[in-house]
Design brief:
single chain; 14 strands; elongated; six-stranded mixed sheet; alpha/beta; 586 residues
Length: 586
């Protein structure tokens, strides 16, 4: 049913101005709604999905508008041929701005977008060959043959065809591996990076894509308005665009159109009504918009679309062709040294968190890393996985030293991991969270995804996720939002996600925490099966019965220093281990 909404919506929109139900004024208003929807769609992807709040998208509309104004007025280039120019100019500007901006985090990111949004407004208003604050007029209209598209209903068709294309491309993008990678960034970067997502480049791609949609909107605006001036490209319009995305529904592409419609119609009506109520002219609608934004954030942070149409449906999984699955990663020879930590050290200022610790993980074995709270186990984990840089020492993988290794590099080598505190995307379905683990087993990029050419690959990746969910016993919750699961289930989701990578080494950080007795037994059985398949496991766990009955080899840390190493029976009776856990042999 939901899949039929898009073509039905597109058909109704395109036919509407020719039914005679709307006056020219309202048709023109819907032209502006379509133009604003393009900017809001980009913000849905950038802010609602990727978590990068931007108040400066109006500046990119200005880049697109001014670019087409200059080339069509000064060179006589056809307006249609100026579209690539507008998109290219906007894309280059976004690339340069985004290379700095997307590296900001927290409140610095929106503050940064406010800063360059204001800067470009004054830049447009102070360049004489752009007409300064008076702007540029005499922009030629779009033509089909010798016919100029001046009537609002004729331009309506062009605008909304572009909107439909943008909706389809963005929806396709969000349904694939790139869309999952972007959604994972909203909750933090650790899980995404651990499975091969290069976060700076992914953020930059999304930033540029959203800006290019705004550039297309600017191109349409210039040829519909037939003049440009700095006013529509300042920080206040930028805030309105963001409000459209938030009001419609953060993360919902159709919500962007709903939000654009609501804001533009409301602004049009308020501009007529509020001066009569107040008794003087002024931009009083800005005050109302501010109040609306506060109310939305307070009462409906997910926007209007989810309230009207419910939660997003999880992707449907179908079995791929038998020969479609990617080849399995070759397993190393049994007992060959897979990972070796040689005198690894980590200092935080004057605190030595890991003190020259050495150990090895042989292929096809389970190694337990144990110790009391604060022993340095998770820090050692993060050193091995590349989350933290080494202060001193060396880590090698299959005999090859790793210098300045990063989580993405370790994932590519075949290292899958879980986290001490579950790192999942709550509003994404369980199967999509697991499919994130198979990110490196796909290759489709943004262009293929937007064109819908990644469907076969996506079927394979979702099937891999389905198989791993079945392996950990969570098939029945595959389509529910991951945020609705209990802690024990989230632990198993993380295990399934690590297995979706097709790893040769799995690092598990307290995987049994929160599991019931039966679930612990099932997990232990699964880990023994993985060992039998040649997969190595490095395990941090506080449940001593669980780890003692499972590990082939134990490494014991206390205050960042290795105090014992060996088989479980020997380590359990070591006086240093007893003292670390119990305070003394007695």
């Amino acid at each position: 049913m939901r899949r039929a909404i898009a073509p039905l919506f597109a058909l109704v929109i395109l036919v509407l101005p020719f039914t005679g139900l709307l006056s020219d004024y309202w048709v023109a208003l819907f032209d502006y709604i379509g133009i604003a929807s393009l900017v809001a769609i980009g913000l849905v992807l950038l802010t609602g999905v990727g978590g990068m709040t931007s108040f400066g998208q109006a500046a990119f509309v200005g880049f697109g508008a001014y670019a087409t104004a200059v080339v069509t007025i000064d060179t006589g280039l056809s307006p249609w041929l100026s579209l690539p120019v507008s998109v290219a100019v906007t894309g280059i500007a976004a690339l340069l701005i985004g290379a700095i901006t997307v590296r900001l985090s927290g409140h610095y990111l929106p503050l940064g977008t406010i800063a360059w949004g204001i800067s470009f407004y004054y830049l447009f208003g102070n360049i004489s060959w752009l007409g300064a604050h008076d702007g540029m007029s005499g922009i030629p209209p779009l033509h089909i043959g010798s016919h100029a598209l001046i009537a609002p209903e004729e331009f309506f068709v062009v605008v909304w065809i572009v909107v439909v294309i943008a909706v389809v491309a963005t929806q396709n993008l969000l349904r694939g591996r790139m869309g999952r990678a972007v959604r994972a960034l909203r909750q933090g970067v650790h899980a995404a990076e651990a499975f091969g997502v290069y976060t700076p480049s992914t953020k930059l791609k999304v930033f540029v894509y959203a800006a290019m949609l705004a550039g297309v909107a600017g191109w349409l605006y210039a040829h519909f308005q037939r003049s440009v001036s700095p006013g529509p490209f300042g920080i206040i319009p930028g805030t309105e665009y963001l409000l459209m995305a938030v009001l419609g529904g953060a993360g919902r592409v159709y919500g962007a159109i709903l939000g654009a419609t609501a804001i533009i119609v409301l602004r049009d009506q308020l501009q007529s009504v509020l001066p009569l109520i107040v008794g003087s002219a002024g931009n009083y609608e800005i005050i109302v918009f501010g109040a609306i934004l506060v109310l939305i954030l307070r009462l409906a942070s997910d926007g209007i679309w989810p309230i009207l149409f419910g939660p997003q449906a999880a992707p449907r999984t179908v079995a791929p062709p038998p020969d479609a699955a990617p080849p399995q990663r070759p397993r190393p020879a049994a007992d060959a040294v897979l990972v070796e930590a040689d005198a690894v050290r980590k200092e935080f200022g004057g605190l030595v968190a890991v003190n020259d610790v050495s150990f090895a993980v042989p292929a096809g074995r389970i190694v337990g890393l144990i110790g009391p709270n604060g022993a340095g186990k998770s820090t050692t984990f993060n050193l091995v996985t590349g989350v933290l840089p080494l202060t001193a020492g060396r880590i090698s993988f299959e005999g090859r030293p790793l210098s300045h290794h990063r989580p993405q590099q370790m994932a590519a080598l075949g290292l899958g991991r879980t986290f001490q505190h579950a790192e999942i995307v709550p509003d994404m379905s369980v199967i999509e969270n697991v499919a994130l683990g198979a990110h490196l087993r796909g290759h489709a990029g943004m262009m293929r995804a937007m064109a819908g050419l990644d469907r076969a690959e996506e079927t394979v990746l979702l099937d891999i996720a389905r198989q791993q969910l079945a392996r950990v016993g969570l098939s029945d919750v595959a389509t529910v939002p991951a945020g609705s699961l209990a802690l024990g289930q989230l632990r198993l989701v993380e295990v399934a996600r690590a297995l979706a990578l097709d790893p040769i080494l799995v690092l598990l950080d307290e995987p049994a925490a929160g599991l019931r007795v039966g679930e612990k037994k099932a997990l232990a059985k699964l880990l023994r099966e993985l060992r039998a398949e040649g997969i190595s496991i490095l395990l941090v766990e506080h449940d001593m019965d669980f780890v003692m009955n499972l590990a082939d080899h134990l490494v014991v840390l206390d205050f960042g220093t290795k105090i014992a190493e060996g088989r479980a029976g020997d380590v359990k009776n070591d006086p240093k281990v007893i003292e670390a856990y119990l305070g003394g042999v007695a």
